[in-house]
Amino acid sequence: MTGVLVNTVAVFLGGFLGLLGGKLLTEKLNRAAMTGLALCVLYIGISGALKGENVLFTIAAMVLGSLLGTLLDIDGKISRLGEKVQELSKDRFGSVAEGFVTASLLFCVGAMAVTGSLDAGLRGDNATLYAKSALDFVAAIMLASTLGFGVALSGFAVLVYQGLIALLAGLIAPLLSPQAVSEMACTGSLLIIALGLNMLGLTKIKVADLLPAILIAPVLVLITSLF
Predict the structure, then answer these.
(1) Structural domain range at position 199
(2) How many domains does the chain have?
(3) Dist. CA 125–CA 116, nearest whole Å
(4) Is the confidence at residue 170, as pLDDT, over 70?
(5) What is the reported pTM?
(6) DSSP characters over the chain
(7) How far is CA 165 from the centre of its chain?
């Protein structure tokens, strides 16, 4: 769990540093930074989406995930929670929900998050998570400078998501084949693309409602492998 804790602290610290730095930027500079950051988010998403091995898994996971997420109203619940945090902070921290969802996806979606946590849980090898922590620290600074306090809060998502994988590694590892991890990353990367489009103001996709797709993708791979 050491690697998971280091990663969590890196996100918290980077988020708070970015929040302080963002206060020094004017509204015009913030908009410019947001545009540049959104383009980088799109690049990350497109790069990850191209690594999928079977587009049928991605399509099925996205459709089923969107239906389940909409029925559960995940986006609405996260938005309402973010609004409460903003009210308590007297709107000093910007869009908490947007920052939380964007950062959580960037930090939790991807092969490094899954394989690094499995390595930490199975072999006590934290090398991958330490490398990821350094990357997430820099990314958190950049994200928080424009998206605000929600980025720092995404450290909780990192702790829960990667912590559970590490703690349950012995049970999860046999179910997460390389293809399953690949399809998880691909599906999650599509959500990151949606985030980038939202950040540019081109769309208003309820990305949180698509989150179940990330979990459905490896399940579909597992089911098909049984036949």
Answers:
(1) 2-225
(2) 1
(3) 8
(4) yes
(5) 0.80
(6) -HHHHHHHHHHHHHHHHHHHHHTTS-HHHHHHHHHHHHHHHHHHHHHHHTT-S-HHHHHHHHHHHHHHHHHHTHHHHHHHHHHHHHHHTTTTT--HHHHHHHHHHHHHSSHHHHHHHHHHHHH---HHHHHHHHHHHHHHHHHHHHH-THHHHHHHHHHHHHHHHHHTHHHHGGG--HHHHHHHHHHHHHHHHHHHHHHTTS----GGGGTHHHHHHHHHHHHHHT-
(7) 15
Phi, psi dihedral angles at 126 (to 5 degrees): -100, 10
Name residue 125's amino acid: D
Q: Could you give the CA distance from residue 86 to residue 81 in angstroms, rounded to a whole number?
A: 9
**How do residues 63-77 score in pLDDT, each as one tens digit?**
999 999 999 998 888
